[in-house]
Design a protein that fits this description.
Shape: globular
Structural class: mainly beta
Number of domains: 1
Distance between the termini: 25 Å
Strand order of the largest sheet: 1-2-3-4
Radius of gyration: 11 Å
Bound molecules: zinc ion
Number of strands: 4
Largest sheet: 4 strands, antiparallel
Pfam families: DUF5679
CATH architecture: Single Sheet
Length: 56
């Protein structure tokens, strides 16, 4: 079983049209880009945040 990397930060919610703090999991996209996926704590919509390069 793969280890799941978690992410805590903010992402733009398209439904709220605001940035929301969320906790989610980090996924690697097909192009190798890291992105965090989570749920908006206010409206429950999925939010994504592109993380780009791996942080030091
Ligand atoms: Zn929202």
């Amino acid at each position: 079983m793969a280890e799941v990397e978690t992410y805590k930060g903010d992402a733009y919610c398209v439904k709220c049209k605001e940035k929301r703090d969320f906790e989610g999991t980090v996924k690697i996209s097909d192009s190798g880009r890291r992105m965090a996926q989570g749920i908006c704590p206010v409206c429950g919509t999925k939010v994504n945040r592109i993380l780009g390069k791996k942080p030091e």
